[in-house]
């Protein structure tokens, strides 16, 4: 009786392919959210008063643009618990951002918030074809960070076996991958690549039972994706999330890998021009802005993520009716400006993809001498020990930078595996111009 009930509750056909989605439902949730924050959030009471917002004027989703944006700096200024919109008695947990660039952002969660997050993570797993028979090795960090515990919440809701290794200790990771016959790896792309290289070095590939990788936390190129998939013999899925919203599990690409489905029954996405703030139509690249329709502990309205993407028009071939965003191109605040040219990570990864014999791993060093900026692009290439082939590849890369971005850079090819590897996010840009 219990098993039949559980199977019905976790039926991916109901969860993913026949949800109740409508503009009327979204508008009702938006109005409910506005009522909640006006009644219970000192943060939004003050913000709406300063912006002269009357929530009674929000009659349609088109009126969303009448509401002010919320940005990361405001969240930092609200430290420690200025974002809390409900009494202490219903807060069951907090998480926070790393705070590496200032005060951390602390996000309080109610029991319902935790339950919704678990459901969103479970949907991601189901969209990737996971079941309660899978064994999910969770390598992202635990603690105040949302990653590890988010992946675990989804695994437990799905009924799968969670293997909460956390980050680091590669020896133990490899031991558990083989001995427990792990079928799913959750990690950053950098750590998935590191594990893949270690498995290859030690000849463990025939002892690994992995079939799926759920990869997130940092940008990763199609070339890096191909390397991870080929070396581990798995299919990878790109997962998206932010601590400020819930954590990982906001969106995931399906088996067609043509954009990431996002859970529009809980989250309202819009794309804006990052400079003017103007809303942009579907299909246009811009900055992603998120409104948390059902969040209680620390709801956010029109939160500027700084992530660059677009909403993909039309339905996905997989049949899932949840809308999609494109893979993240970069951030509006992580562009490299050199010689009056703006360069985004996605452009660099596109160039790498175009030139044969070039690995996914690169490092950018920015320097300034006599008032002139210079960019050195160090990149792993195949057969780097052959000076003729190395020179040919370096020349092709330099031409690609000039042709596609319009900037001249110094190319330095290095052997595969020579650049640093990371168990977390890989630092790819070293800016020495202000040191």
TrEMBL record:
Start and end residues of each AMP-dependent synthetase/ligase domain: 84-291
One Pfam assignment: AMP-binding_C_2
GO biological process entries: phenylacetate catabolic process
Domain AMP-dependent ligase C-terminal: 341-433
Highest taxon, organism lineage: Archaea
Gene3D superfamilies (UniProt xref): 3.30.300.30, N-terminal domain of ligase-like
Any GO molecular function: phenylacetate-CoA ligase activity
Pathway info: Aromatic compound metabolism
Enzyme Commission code: 6.2.1.30
Keywords: Ligase, Nucleotide-binding, Phosphopantetheine, Phosphoprotein
Subunit-structure text: Monomer.
Name by which UniProt lists this protein: Phenylacetate-coenzyme A ligase
């Amino acid at each position: 009786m219990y098993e039949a009930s559980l199977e019905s509750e976790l039926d991916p056909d109901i969860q993913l392919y026949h949800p109740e989605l409508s503009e009327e439902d979204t508008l009702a949730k938006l109005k409910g959210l506005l009522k909640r924050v006006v009644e219970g959030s000192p943060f939004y009471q003050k913000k709406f008063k300063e912006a002269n917002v009357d929530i009674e004027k929000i009659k349609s989703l088109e009126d969303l643009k009448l509401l002010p944006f919320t940005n990361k700096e405001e969240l930092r200024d609200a430290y420690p618990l200025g974002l809390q919109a409900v009494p202490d008695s219903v807060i069951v947990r907090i998480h926070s951002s790393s705070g590496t660039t200032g005060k951390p952002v602390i996000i309080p969660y109610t029991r319902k918030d935790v339950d919704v997050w678990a459901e969103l993570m479970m949907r991601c797993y189901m969209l990737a074809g996971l079941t309660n028979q899978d064994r999910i090795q969770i390598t992202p960090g635990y603690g105040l960070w949302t990653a590890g515990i988010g992946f675990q919440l989804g695994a437990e809701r799905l009924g799968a076996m969670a293997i909460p290794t956390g980050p680091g200790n590669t020896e133990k990771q490899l031991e558990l991958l083989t001995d427990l016959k792990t079928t799913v790896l959750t990690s950053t792309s950098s750590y998935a690549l590191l594990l893949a290289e270690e498995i290859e070095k030690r000849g463990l590939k025939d002892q690994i039972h992995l079939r799926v990788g759920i990869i997130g936390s940092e940008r990763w190129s199609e070339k890096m994706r191909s390397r991870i998939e080929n070396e581990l013999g798995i299919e990878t899925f790109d997962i998206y999330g932010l601590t400020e919203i819930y954590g990982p599990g906001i969106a995931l690409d399906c088996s067609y890998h043509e954009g990431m489905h996002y859970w529009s029954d809980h989250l309202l996405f819009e794309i804006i021009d990052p400079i003017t703030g103007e809303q942009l139509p579907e299909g246009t690249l811009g900055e992603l802005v998120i409104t948390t329709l059902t969040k209680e502990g620390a709801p956010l309205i029109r939160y500027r993520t700084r992530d660059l993407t677009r909403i993909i028009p039309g339905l996905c071939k997989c049949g899932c009716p949840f809308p999609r965003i494109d893979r993240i191109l970069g951030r509006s605040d992580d562009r490299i400006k050199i010689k009056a040219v703006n360069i985004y990570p996605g452009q660099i990864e596109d160039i790498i993809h175009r030139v044969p014999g070039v690995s996914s791993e690169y490092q950018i060093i920015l320097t300034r001498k006599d008032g002139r900026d210079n960019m050195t692009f160090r990149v792993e290439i195949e057969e780097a020990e052959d000076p003729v082939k190395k020179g040919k590849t370096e020349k092709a890369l330099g031409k690609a930078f000039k042709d596609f971005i319009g900037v001249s850079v110094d190319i330095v090819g290095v052997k595969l595996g020579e650049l640093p590897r990371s168990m977390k996010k890989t630092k790819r840009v070293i800016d020495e111009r202000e040191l």
